[in-house]
């Protein structure tokens, strides 16, 4: 029997990464898009289907015959996030119910508010104080209550060659340009959790391959890359571009605050500032108990590939491995 998946958000970072891994594992992959001819790339292997994630009939129709729906769709540029995210999820739930499919949701640390600290487990109380965190927690509540097979993998801030909107590209470097400066949003000494997208997608795939051995509502945390003092990611970027002595400048939080009422992206960045002012770290103990280990690309390699994918570093740049002092 063919394994068929529907990916919502296949043009985004995590959606595209999961779609590629599914294809590599022998799945047939449908991808929903309002303009499928424009979204399709030659040789990408995806079956592009015309439709809108906001239209339930489009999602239900596209999901016919699938065993998995990857819900990785988000409003572009964070526009109308509060008005669109939950209706899109409800459409995915309806489509999964009609098809008898499992739902895969890429989760985040946003569910946890400033009261969370270190080694957060999957069942820890979720008390988000931000709008986006509240919506994320509600998404998971609806999935838990829907009675369908669900897999959620929560991870830190995404980075990767095709990561789309993320802190790495929006806060640390400028995509499409050689790295001449680095900004660091973190307060001095504060740790931060990162997740390399290819590792996230591989983790999801290994969990999916466990099939019915997973709980009906399966939720796991990734360790990813824990930057213990907020300087390791910056050092990896500087090393990758051959400028190990480059120091990071302070992220312009003042500008984000001033512009937030007028610029949607800045408003969203400011909302999550608490994640840079205190260490909020998820524990992957349950994941390791299930899989034995977590897929993990070394930080220097992950950063080099990310910079190359974002046009900040040439494809033939030499490999530089960070060595301990």
From TrEMBL:
It comes from the Bacteria. Pfam families: NAD_binding_10 (PF13460). GO terms for cellular component: cytoplasm. Residues 9-162 form the NAD(P)-binding domain. One of its GO terms (molecular function) is aldehyde dehydrogenase (NAD+) activity. PANTHER family: NAD(P)-BINDING DOMAIN-CONTAINING PROTEIN-RELATED, PROTEIN YEEZ. This is SDR family NAD(P)-dependent oxidoreductase.
